[in-house]
TrEMBL record:
GO cellular component, one term: nucleus
Known partners and oligomeric status: Interacts with CUL4A and/or CUL4B.
Biased composition (Pro residues): 75-85
SMART domains linked to this entry: WD40
Function: Specifically binds 5-hydroxymethylcytosine (5hmC), suggesting that it acts as a specific reader of 5hmC.
GO molecular function terms attached to this record: DNA binding
Protein name: WD repeat-containing protein 76
Native organism taxonomy: Eukaryota, Metazoa, Chordata, Craniata, Vertebrata
Record GO biological process: regulation of DNA damage checkpoint
Top-rank taxon: Eukaryota
Disordered: region residues: 40-96
Keywords: Repeat, WD repeat
Family affiliation: Belongs to the WD repeat DDB2/WDR76 family.
Keyword Zinc appears in the UniProt entry: no
């Protein structure tokens, strides 16, 4: 009666609300809720909570792969993670001279002694003469076609990816050195066959970025890693330390025929001058040449006061006589590169040509005329090696002034030889024995011998 003023719809709605309230009251939900709460509380009392560990002041940083850090393994290594308090550092290669002891000291010592004896013997009397500079191009192509790869001339010499190689100038024995990304140096006497004749040494803790047999004394093998420059002297069976630095080294080349001084490039763009005759392991001079990164340095074969430096998009020639700590200006510059340059080298006899490999997928050849670089060719070439392959370096054939060798991404896998006009002269391939990309290659100075190294530490000798 008190709701007579409401409409029929409102009275019906009020009736429904009242009936629903009576229905939920009959269910006694509040008692059920209280009972459930009591049961939950009782069960929880029997459970012991795990104490949360206290957060350490300095937590150990998880190790992340180079792929996740987007770091190219053929260049600068990932930054070192801070070690937790009290943790012992992993033992690395110590400073100072190191004995020539193989990685596995339980290996056949007779094999090691035989290999080092061979290296010493072929280095005693050696006169390298370049005889094929003016050989007709057709005859040169025929000599390339005659070079073959057989199964016994393929061998895994180092454990990881090949970063550098050097070939001994001996004309009687094929003797090759290879450096990998872990600091290993493998020596291989190819003439012994694929099952023997190789030993592995660990003179470095970081990638062996560059390596040369001394042109003055091939009994010396000079190798460079991120922080050290060493000389392996087989006559004393020791790896001497020439230079040590907190900076990361990228490449080097000898400034004199007697190999007593060298120019060393840094990943951060600087260069240093090293003299092996001075005591200690400090460089003679550290120089800022204005590069953000220096990948390769190469000394002119005739006028050795000039050296060629290649960095990001920079390729410049400098005069070592006028270097100072900063404010250095190049003698000449090579323009036209739009991405990072992987390598730049003078031609081996006169130094009148320069060949470069660039990430813009081009090979470039230029005349070197001291003040400017007239372009010889700009050849399209797939240089996209990716993150897990060593970047291509186009190297001149020491027997020719006008031909160079470079790795290839083409299939079937091959190593290519180009003329300084950009013309492809020959492709080294073997479907049965060569199934991988050979990023690093080296050519014998007098013999028709080519060695290619891949990302698994395997060498292929044509």
């Amino acid at each position: 009666d008190g709701y007579s003023q409401l409409s029929a719809y409102e009275r019906k709605r009020l009736k429904n609300i009242t009936e629903n309230a009576k229905f939920f009251a009959a269910l006694k939900l509040h008692e059920v809720s209280a009972r459930l709460n009591q049961i939950a509380t009782k069960r929880q009392s029997h459970v012991t909570k795990r104490a949360k560990p206290k957060k350490a002041e300095e937590e150990t940083v998880r190790r992340r792969s180079m792929r996740l850090q987007r770091v190219e393994p053929s260049q600068i290594p990932p930054p070192e993670m801070p070690a937790p308090p009290g943790a012992e550092e992993q033992p690395g290669v110590p400073a100072g001279p190191l004995p020539m002891v193989p990685e596995d000291q339980m290996e056949n010592t007779e094999l090691t002694e035989g290999l080092l004896t061979t290296w010493m013997r072929i280095s005693e009397v050696l006169l390298v003469t370049i005889t094929d500079i003016f050989l007709m191009l057709s005859r040169y192509q025929d000599s390339l076609s005659s070079m073959v790869l057989s199964e016994e001339n393929v061998r895994k010499v180092v454990k990881y990816r090949v970063c550098s190689m050097a070939i001994h100038p001996s004309e009687s024995i094929i003797f090759v050195a290879a450096g990998d990304k872990s600091g290993q140096i493998g020596l291989w006497n190819v003439n012994c066959g694929s099952e023997e004749g190789a030993c592995v040494f660990i003179p470095h803790s970081d990638p062996v970025n560059c390596m040369h047999f001394s042109p003055f004394n091939p009994a010396h093998l000079v190798s460079l890693s991120n922080g050290t420059l060493r000389c392996g002297d087989v006559t004393r069976a020791v790896f001497d330390e020439i230079c040590r630095s907190e900076e990361s080294f990228s490449s080097f080349d000898f400034l004199e025929d007697n190999a007593s001084t060298a120019i060393v490039g840094h990943w951060d763009g600087d260069v240093t001058v090293v003299d092996r005759r001075t005591p200690g392991t400090s460089p003679e001079l550290s120089v800022d040449i204005g590069f953000k990164r220096t990948r390769t340095v190469h000394v002119h074969p005739v006028n050795k006061q000039y050296f060629l430096a290649a960095g990001l998009v920079d390729v410049c020639v400098y005069d070592v006589r006028y270097l100072k700590s900063n404010g250095n200006k190049p003698v000449s510059s090579l323009k036209g590169h739009t991405k990072s340059v992987a390598s730049a080298y003078f031609s081996p006899v006169t130094g009148s040509r320069v060949v470069t490999v660039c990430a813009d997928d081009k090979l470039r050849g230029m005349f070197y005329l001291s003040l400017f670089f007239p372009c010889l060719f700009s050849q399209r070439h797939n240089n996209n090696t990716g993150r897990w392959l060593t970047r291509f370096r186009a190297i001149w054939d020491p027997k020719r002034e006008d031909c160079f060798v470079v790795g290839s991404m083409e299939r079937p896998r091959q190593i290519e030889v180009f003329q300084d006009t950009g013309k492809l002269l020959h492709s080294f391939c073997n479907i049965d024995c060569l199934a991988s990309v050979c990023s690093i290659n080296v050519v014998h100075p007098t013999k028709n011998i080519l060695v290619g190294g891949n990302s698994s530490g395997r060498l292929h000798v044509f």
